[in-house]
């Protein structure tokens, strides 16, 4: 990061730490800040929280809007993300996008971090529509019923039923 990429001097956050803003690579009209915020023309942009719990922001280049994950933009801007790596929230809070809380790690390390810190999965997730018993029942019934039959029995779409049947969702109910 060069000095010309930084705009203005560092600000102080409410906790007394310095906040640095830097142009986002590929999105030079936008700034990423070490406190986990994204801005344009000095104004903080609003985020949307996806069903997965991650925050996303809409950036435009040449008039074309694109939804991007805030944590990935922050990490990409200040640290970079090597090919094949993912961005991990050290404290497990998907809304804490401050640079000090983010790290680029391998998918294997991310899985181990989630297991070690008990990141919520399955029916613990706020958006889960099914419980363990229903998932087991879907798998049992799939031997004798079509996916369409299962869709009529459970409040799920075709892809969700198929992901449960193939163990891509709810691998360990």
Describe the protein in words:
There is one protein chain. This protein has two domains: 3-119, Homing Intron 3 (I-Ppo) Encoded Endonuclease, Chain A (Alpha-Beta Complex); 123-165. A hairpin with a 2-residue loop joins strand 8 (55-61) and strand 9. With 173 residues, the protein is an alpha+beta fold. Helix content is 25%, strand content 25%.
Task: For the structure shown, list the relevant keywords.
Homing Intron 3 (I-Ppo) Encoded Endonuclease, Chain A, 2 domains, 4-stranded antiparallel beta sheet, 3-stranded antiparallel beta sheet, 25% strand, disordered N terminus
| Strand composition percent | 15-25%
> Roughly how many Å is the radius of gyration?
20 Å
CATH level 3 topology of the largest domain = Homing Intron 3 (I-Ppo) Encoded Endonuclease, Chain A
Our count of domains comes out at 2
Low-confidence stretches: 1-10, 120-127
- Summarize the biggest pleated sheet: 4 strands, antiparallel
Question: How are the strands of the largest sheet arranged?
Answer: 3-4-5-6
Helix content: 25-40%
> What is the count of β-strands?
11
The N- to C-terminal Cα distance equals 46 Å
> What form results from the Cα inertia axes?
elongated
The assigned CATH architecture of the largest domain is: Alpha-Beta Complex
Per DSSP, the total helix count is 5
Order of helices and strands: EEEEEEEEEHEEHHHH
What class do helices, strands and sheet pairing give? alpha+beta
Q: What is the C-level CATH assignment of the largest domain? A: Alpha Beta
Mean pLDDT: 83
